[in-house]
Amino acid sequence: MFEDHHIPPDSCHLLGDSGYPCRRYLLTPFPRPQTDSQAAYNRAHKKTRSIVERGIGQLKRRFHVLHGEVRLNPEKTCQVILACALLHNICKKRNIQLPDENVADADDNMEVEDEHQEVQLPQDAANGTRFREVFCNHHFHAEP
């Protein structure tokens, strides 16, 4: 949807690890941060991805259907995931505990790591890397 311009530019962004190509809509970490701003950006990126991964782990703990392959057509699969997310939010609002809340779950406690490997980017990724630099400098500029 981002690539087909169904979502307005800069209205929101996706976060990806270093295995994804950097795009205007898909922000990835700097492979080797050179400035304090880039290091701050990478810390914020990692922290945010960590929160997302923790949420996904909670969803998977509450709804076992999300642990593996959902063998339905893509439209039905989206409906199942949406229903799980809605029910999960209702449970959170009503303080309904996750199953086995005291048992550590590998997905729920996942530490997000970036290997900082250099990825061979396609030709059009240069626009994404330039955007990431501008985004970083605008949002993570060093305090005077």
Q: Quote the average pLDDT.
A: 82
Number of helices: 3
Strand residue content = under 5%
SSE order, as H and E? EEHHH
CA radius of gyration is 18 Å
How many beta-strand runs? 2
Largest sheet: 2 strands, parallel
Shape: globular
Helix content: 40-55%
* N→C terminal distance: 39 Å
Strands of the largest sheet, in order across it? 1-2
Q: Which regions have little confidence, pLDDT < 50, spanning 5+ residues? A: 102-112, 114-123
Class by SSE composition? mainly alpha
Topology readout:
Layout: E1 14-15, E2 26-27, H1 36-62, H2 74-93, H3 126-139
Parallel strand pairs: 1-2
Task: Report on this structure.
This protein has helices at residues 36-62, 74-93, 126-139, and strands at residues 14-15, 26-27. The protein is globular and about 45 Å long. The termini are far apart. The protein is mainly α.
In short:
It contains three helices and two strands.
For this entry, give a set of tags:
144 residues; single chain
